[in-house]
Amino acid sequence: MRNHPAVVLVAVLLSTILLPVSLTGASVALPDIGRDLDAGLAAVQWVVNGYNATFAACMLAAGALADLFGRRLLFAVGVALYAGCGLAGAFATDIVLLDLARALAGVGAAAAATSAGGLLAESFPGRARARVFGLFGTALGVGLAFGPSVAGLLIEGFGWRAVFAGPALLALVVLGLTPLLPESRQPHRGRIDWLGAVTFTGALLLGIVGFVQGPETGWTDPAIVLAFAGSVLLLAAFVRVERRRPDPMFDLALLARPRFVGILLAAATIVAVLVPLLVYLPSYLTTVVGLGPGAAGATLILLTAPTLVLPLLGAALVRRVGAPVVIVTSVAVVAVGAAWTTVIGPDSAPLSLAAPLLTMGVGVGLSMGLLDGLAIGSVEPARAATGAAMINTARLASETVAIAVVGAVLATTTGGRLADPGFTGGLHAVLWTMAGVALLAVGVVTLLVRDRAAAPPPPAPAATPDPPVAATPPGERPR
Q1: What are the tens digits of pLDDT across the range 215-256?
Q2: How far apart are CA 413 and CA 430, in angstroms?
Q3: Which one has a higher pLDDT value, 184 or 262?
Q4: 393 vs 56, 74, 245, 388, 440, CA distance in Å?
Q5: Where residue 190 falls among pLDDT bands split at 50, 70, 90?
Q6: Between 130 and 345, residue with greater pLDDT
Q7: Exposure string (b/e) for 327-339, b if CB count within 10 Å is 16 or more?
Q8: CA 140, 342, 276: angle at the middle one, nearest 5?
């Protein structure tokens, strides 16, 4: 089939915008969902945690499937599943059905996200690849920057169900473009690492179950203890399985490269600070500060707007000062922003939060795209989707665990109500902890990424000292 690079770019960028919107939009809607469906805090948290957990858990398997059976095929399947589950969530009348729809939507998002990077890499060789992956990072920024405000407006105008229906309808537009996309796959078909996929997925999901349900049932409840124990055992089994496979979906050999480990740690740290705040700040602003959903979403633009413009600036800075400096600076700025955000309180006006939230956003925006490009450049082009899946998995797993841990802390300090008394103190404790962890990561990342001899040879032209800029969703972001 003839390649249509412009169509590939449009389809991939639209799908990339959708993924962070789905995460941040759902977080703004959580208070209304809980009231409308008469659901408790733990059940409502699964609207976000279910999506993120399956997104992260399925990323590795989705990347391997995309390389083996075709990136266009997996992209189409992922977008279709995402759209269908979005519509199902919009019409859900029970919190269990909504949580199930969100979990399945995360599976679709994983398939679409891993395939998107491979499609771009195949369609845009040479210098063009660096430019389009820069746009990829900007698309993530658009989703992060405007997701909360768009969600707030949708909620105020049409109710919380529009937060799921809107992205689903746009996903159907993307699905209509997929017949025009080129097909690409790994030249030599191998076998899917089902045992690795099952052990990793089980480890992540059991850990999330423990953190989300722990505050409600009690941390010493036998089911919670078994969930955490099972998570640790399955994670150990995953490592053992991957070390023995000749073609593992998560190449543990890359962890012997200090620079690659530093990239993963930086990416994981940044999203572990950003995404939990995107999830829980809207609830604080609406229930404690007293803002409406629209105003709360607009306030979060202060945190996310820098991600709209700074990915391209980050790529330019790499050419001047080198990737290690940009990576370390990004993590440090995020740490400063998290500590500064502790000024938040019941009487906070949006303007008083501008400086700390913008500071955090600058750190996130500078690294967006850069880290993905360095990671995807560490594997051969035939396994581009698998390479993208590795950093996405590190990022998504860390943000999913961070959301669950932050939610557990806030549920404990507020008695499961996410309201004062307890919300302000719990949020301050979370922010100080985030800042401390990020500062610790600054030191470790500095030691790891400074070893330039450990860096893989860049596939980009000599004008760029590092692999081309790429980006993938968070959950990203995304998120």
Answers
A1: 878 888 999 999 999 999 999 999 998 888 877 767 777 777
A2: 11
A3: 262
A4: 5, 17, 19, 9, 22
A5: low
A6: 345
A7: bbbbbbbbbbbbb
A8: 35
Measure the CA–CA gap between 79 and 326, rounded to whole angstroms: 33
Write the CB contacts of 315 (distance below 8 Å, at least 6 apart in sequence).
130, 134, 369, 370, 464, 469
Tokens 């409600």 belong to 216
Tokens 């919380």 — which residue? 160
Tokens representing 420 are 């004062």
Which tokens belong to 162? 């529009």
Model confidence at 27, in pLDDT bands (50, 70, 90)? confident
Structure tokens at 244: 């023995």
Tokens representing 451? 């070893």
Taking every pair of C-alpha atoms in the chain, what is the biggest distance, in angstroms? 61
- Helix count (H) and strand count (E) of the chain? 16, 0
CB 195 within 8 A of CB 241: yes
Helix spans in 218-257 (H): 222-244
Assigned token pair, 352: 């008083």
Specify the length of the chain in residues: 479
